[in-house]
Amino acid sequence: MATTAFKGTPVHTVGELPAPGTAAPAVDLVGVDLSPVRSADFPGRRIVLNIFPSVDTGTCALSVRRFNELAATLENTVVVCASRDLPFAQARFCGAEGIENVVMGSAFRTAFGEDYGVTMTDGPTAGLLARSVVVIDGEGTVLHSQLVDEMSHEPDYDAALAALR
């Protein structure tokens, strides 16, 4: 179990993020068109997982916008934004914001949060995914992982980018 915080109050997760140097769990999400979004869909490509509670919150929306900008500049890399939002909410957000460079994935009916250790188990956000970033190389090995210490904070974009260099 790992610990983050929501407005200064400790919140626990179901497990730990996969550590750098370990094999990444398979990504299994639901796309905005209800089709599967899986790591197997991106063979040989690096994957940046931008994991967050809900696209309908300010910090989460900021992270999707920022990773959308960054994704346009990354070679052989796909950015997958994962939350428990329904695919319809993710599609609405992307359409309204002009988000085109990331892949949105919903964990609403998958074990993604448990597989990555990021489902929050207590506090007002219990059941949602904790804000995290995981960078995976083209062979499926974790290069970088970060559980953000406070849900209102953005992830360390520079550290994620550095892992890709």
N-end to C-end Cα span: 30 Å
Numbering strands along the chain, what is their spatial order in the largest sheet? 7-6-5-8-9
- The helix-strand sequence is EEEEEHEHEHEEH
Q: What's the total helix number?
A: 4
What this model shows, in words?
- By secondary structure, the protein is an alpha/beta fold.
- Helix content is 22%, strand content 25%.
- The protein contains four helices and nine strands, in the order E-E-E-E-E-H-E-H-E-H-E-E-H.
- It has a five-stranded mixed sheet. Strands 1-2 form a two-stranded antiparallel ribbon.
- Strand 1 (3-6) and strand 2 (9-12) form a beta hairpin.
- The termini are far apart.
- The model has no long low-confidence stretch (mean pLDDT 95).
- Residues 18-165 form the Thioredoxin domain.
- Disulfide bonds join 60-94.
- This is Thiol peroxidase.
Labels describing this entry:
165 residues, alpha/beta, 4 helices, globular
Chain-wise SSE layout:
Layout: E1 3-6, E2 9-12, E3 28-30, E4 36-38, E5 46-51, H1 58-71, E6 77-83, H2 87-97, E7 103-106, H3 112-115, E8 132-136, E9 142-147, H4 157-164
Parallel strand pairs: 5-6, 6-7
Antiparallel strand pairs: 1-2, 3-4, 5-8, 8-9
Q: In brief, what are we looking at here?
A:
The protein is an alpha/beta fold.
